[in-house]
């Protein structure tokens, strides 16, 4: 098992929030996905062995995320559920959870085993141990969480967990 060392989790908010009490009532599809938040993983191989400051720099990721939330404030809001089970997203700008982590004892090959060129990649056996900060499936917290994990080989695994 990989040792994933998680740093302090912070909250990233819109860089230029609007003052609003707006909310969005979701369609039935979104209201029924409460128990099934999605988790996506992107893997970035640092084949040129660039430094942390030059390869997906964390401060730049935080800044651009904060700017992007200005256009997608739904991601920084919070969800409530009415008596009928409908989800409503309140555009509160309470923020996205952002965690930086390191895995000092494993390289990218541990998480994604190399395959011979004539074999199809085995997506079912990606080792995802502790690569995510999951969103709560009872809608009591953030709608979105992001974790950036830096590996021994200086590669990066980016995980985003969110509601549909």
TrEMBL record:
InterPro entries the record matches: CAT-like_dom_sf, Plant_Fungal_Acyltransferase
Keywords: Transferase
GO molecular function, one term: acyltransferase activity, transferring groups other than amino-acyl groups
Keyword Transferase recorded: yes
Pfam families attached to this UniProt entry: Transferase (PF02458)
Signal peptide span: none
Domain of life: Eukaryota
PANTHER family (alphabetical): FATTY ALCOHOL:CAFFEOYL-COA ACYLTRANSFERASE, TRICHOTHECENE 3-O-ACETYLTRANSFERASE
Annotated protein name in UniProt: Uncharacterized protein
Organism annotation: Rotaria socialis
